[in-house]
Every structure is written in structure tokens, then in C-alpha cells.
User: What shape does this take?
Amino acid sequence: MPVPLFDTHTPLAPLRAEILARIAEVVEDSRFILGPNVGAFEAELAAYCGARHAIGVANGTDAITIALMALGVGPGDEVVVPSFTFYASAEAIGPTGATPVFCDVDPDTFCVTADTVRAALTPATKAVIAVHLFGNVAPIAEIEALGVPVLEDAAQAAGSRSPAGRPGALGAAATFSFFPSKNLGCFGDGGAITTNDDRVAEMARMLRFHGSHDKVTYEHIGFNSRLDEIQAAVLRVQLPHLEGWADGRRAAGEHYRAAGLGELVTLPRPVAGADPAWHLYVIRDPRIELVAKALAAAGHGQKAYYRRPVHLQPAMARYAHGLSLPGTEEAASTHLAIPMSPVLSAEQAAEVTQTVRAATS
Ligand SMILES: *Cc1c(COP(=O)(O)O)cnc(C)c1O
Assistant: This one.
């Protein structure tokens, strides 16, 4: 049986009636912007992450831009960001007026390290964006020890854990995306910023609403970027299930391991101490095109997400002059996402592994 790349439908099926009832309540209540569900979801998300504040915004890209501005990033500043990530991690620096400076990743974890960040620091560095890529958890404390504030891009890491706490509570601030395919997804676009810093939270709250907190006085040039009340209602039904879904993702990774996939290709390695809720399960191999072809022929889901890393994208050419990022190039040329979801079974993992075995032997 073909195994899909991800399955957002099955985990949500038992919640459908409750979600529809909550949406109907919002329609009845007729408060569609910054109503009671947004406020309640913000409190619930903050509690889940172990952060003091959460601020709902329109999407995960705006979340990064607004968080950077709330951290004081502006024109003339540099922001260090990995090149091996979704394009938005770097694109979101643009509206702040700061300059992206690309750093490398460890191809075994797909995350930045203190060493790769250190190599990109200059006196103009104002912040570092550490991406918890594929659900792994970047070593935030080690990077902050370099003396720069870290913004966690946790778009792919809802439900992950580390000894220091959850993504969302590890750095100066963190950002989430609730794009439907993420570990916690709504029924459209949505995002959030979390932080333990009262002033960063206050600034982010103003910036998402045109730079104002009273809708009368406008103190900053901000954005119209709010989490919709309907999306917040949908997310409130789902959040209590995130931990169970994350456990399902962890179990799916174990299924691949038990099936022997690690003897055939390189499996993603959790950062020391981290307990990732794998958003995507990404293997590496020098013969990856062969593996991709075999999986596709068997009808299994597979996708190379970042074959062309961000610093080699046309829009970023001016920031990539003479840049050499060997870990990024290694990850970009050898990675492949294979099926992963909270409900991926041992049988499905064995089927995918069998296809990889046939392709690599
Ligand atoms: C999805 C994603 C984003 C952007 O989130 P949107 O809600 O789609 O704007 C940013 N960074 C990473 C790593 C992502 O995966």
C-alpha cells in the first residue's frame, strides 16, 4: 500500500465535530478579529511552551519579521540565519531593513550550531535566527552564550522537547507557523510569537496591530497581521492533542529505526538531548536520486524540500557573494523527506524501508 508523505486528515477526523461546533460559535458571536478565542489560545500556547507570552499573528513569516523588530532589529543590522531552511526564515528579515548573513548547518542534525553561527558573527550582528528544522531542536543556549539574542524559528518544531524546555521558551523569542501541514496546523494561515520578555511581547502586540495598542495613537509603523478568531478557535481544539501527535511522530521515527532503515541510509540525528517531534523525516544518502525514484515508483511519498538552499536562490544572490557553506551543500544535495505523520504505523515504516532496501542493495 502506498504511504503518503504526510497525513493531516486522519489525526483530525475524531475532532471534526468539535471543531465545526467551535467555528459555529464564532460565527454566532460575530467577533472575528482579536476576540476571546485569540486571547485564550495565546494563554494556552504560552502555557504549553512554558513561555510568559504568546502573540497570535497572521502567519509564521510575519511572526519572524515582527519578532525581529520587537527585538530591536532594523536597518544597518545584520541577522544571522541558516541557508538550509524554508525560504521564509531569511525572507522575513527583509521588511526589517536588516541584512541576512547566511550561516552553515550540521548536516547530521540539519540545525545551526554554536560554531556555524560564530563564523557568521560581525560587530553588526543584532540577532540570530536558529531554525528548529524538521522538528529537531537547535542548541539555543550554546548560541546565546556567544552573546547574541536568538530568535527560534519553531515553525516545524511544535511538540518537540529539549532538556532546557520546549521550543518557544529557549531563546529571546520564538515564532510558530500554523500552516495546515505543520505539527500544529489551522485551517488556513496562522502564526504566533512567544517570549519571556515583557517588553518584546508588548512591542510585538503593537506591531501586529498597526503599531498601536489603543487603536487611537499609532506609535510605530507596524503591520496588519493578526491570527483570525476562527483559526484560534480551530487551534484551541487541537492544542490539547499536540502532545499525543508529537508522541506519534516520535514513534514513527522509532518504527523506521526498528525496520533497519538506519543500516541503509543516514537517519536524522537529534541534537544532543533533544526529543524531536519530527515534522518531516529526512534521510540522507549519496544515491538519494535513486532512492527518490524507487519510492516514487512504489507510490510512496517523498520530497526533496531544499535542494537549492536559500543563499543560492535568485533573490538572495546579493547576500551570498563568495559564500561557501559545505554542510548546507551536503544536506541540500543528499536529503530526502520520506513519509512521516502522527499515525505512521510500523507496517508502513517497514514498507517504505523495504523499498529503500531494494533501491540501495
Ligand atoms: C512554514 C515555515 C515558515 C513560514 O511559515 P508561514 O506560516 O508559511 O508563513 C518559516 N520558517 C520555517 C522553517 C517554516 O517551515
